[in-house]
């Protein structure tokens, strides 16, 4: 079950590496390694790395309704 903070993060288009790490119970270093391997999709914006939440919701099998996202169609 997702906590309210995770639901808030997943309702946004992207989340930070630290937020993703907390959601899935990994260390930040492990997330960076997973990104480097291609296991986790990420986008670099300047010096910052963000993780699109749509693939995360799909990976974790979380529907839009459970995150309170207005993007649900």
Name its key features:
single chain, 73 residues, alpha+beta, Arc Repressor Mutant, subunit A, 5 helices, globular
What can you tell me about this protein's structure?
The protein has 73 residues and is of the alpha+beta class. It has 5 helices and 3 strands. It has helices at 4-10, 17-24, 28-37, 53-59, 64-67; strands at residues 14-16, 43-45, 48-52. It has a 3-stranded antiparallel beta sheet. Strand 2 and strand 3 form a beta hairpin. Helix 2 (17-24) crosses helix 3 (28-37). The mean pLDDT is 85.
Enumerate the spans where pLDDT stays under 50 for 5 or more consecutive residues.
Answer: none
Q: What is the CATH domain class?
A: Mainly Alpha
First and last CA, distance: 23 Å
The structure class reads alpha+beta
Question: Mean of residue pLDDT?
Answer: 85
CATH architecture annotation name? Orthogonal Bundle
Stated plainly, the CATH topology is called Arc Repressor Mutant, subunit A
Q: Which series of helices and strands comes N to C?
A: HEHHEEHH
> How many domains in all?
1
The number of distinct β-strands equals 3
* Largest sheet, strands/sense/barrel: 3 strands, antiparallel
Radius of gyration over C-alpha positions, nearest whole angstrom: 12 Å
């Amino acid at each position: 079950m997702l906590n309210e903070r995770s639901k808030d993060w997943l309702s946004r288009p992207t989340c930070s590496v630290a937020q993703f790490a907390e959601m899935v119970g990994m260390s930040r270093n492990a997330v960076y390694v997973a990104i480097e391997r291609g296991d986790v999709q990420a986008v670099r914006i300047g010096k910052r790395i963000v993780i699109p939440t749509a693939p995360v919701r799909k990976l974790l099998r979380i529907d839009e309704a459970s995150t309170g996202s207005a993007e649900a169609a």
